[in-house]
Here is the input.
Amino acid sequence: MKKGEKGILFGIAAVVLLGGVWKLVQLKDIDEKDMRIPFYSEASVEVRDRAAFLIKQYDCKDCHTLWGTRNVMQSVPAPPLDGIGSLKTEAWLYEYLSSENPQSILPTRLKPEYRMPSYAHMPEADRRILAKYLASLKVEDWYLDEVKRVEREKLYGVAE
Ligand code: HEC
Here is the structure.
């Protein structure tokens, strides 16, 4: 290898190495907040297990995201359920799930097949568990505004 070629190779290696070091410095600078998950549940294991079963049985995740996931192939723009317990009380949630016409409580802007269905005929004990569990789904204060913004966007379609 000629001297000039060696020099070029060395130059490239130095650039790659410096790039890597720069990336590491940047990573270190990322705000700690971005690395934390803002959602948590205060529910007991019993309530969580029972609610998880019901959420599956009633296909809530066909339309809603929960713990950041939803059923694949579904694209209904319903509000996420993560953090809902910081926006609504257990009493409100129970009433909403028990309503014959949920749209009389919360307006909709969606086609009928995408709207929140009525669960008025779900056994009362199940509606109570779901309301309790949903009310336990909290968001950390530093992420509350973002959860409110997403809810507004999904419910009213306000682009921000
Ligand atoms: C067919 C789609 C669909 C299914 C299935 C569905 N939802 Fe909804 N849900 C919606 C939509 C859409 C809204 C927003 C109001 C509307 O447009 O009717 C909503 C609203 C809500 C809200 C109020 C959210 C807020 O920000 O105030 C809660 C709570 C909720 N749903 C819980 C549930 C639970 C629990 C289940 C399962 C038992 C469920 N949903 C099943 C579509 C659905």
Summary: The mean pLDDT is 89.
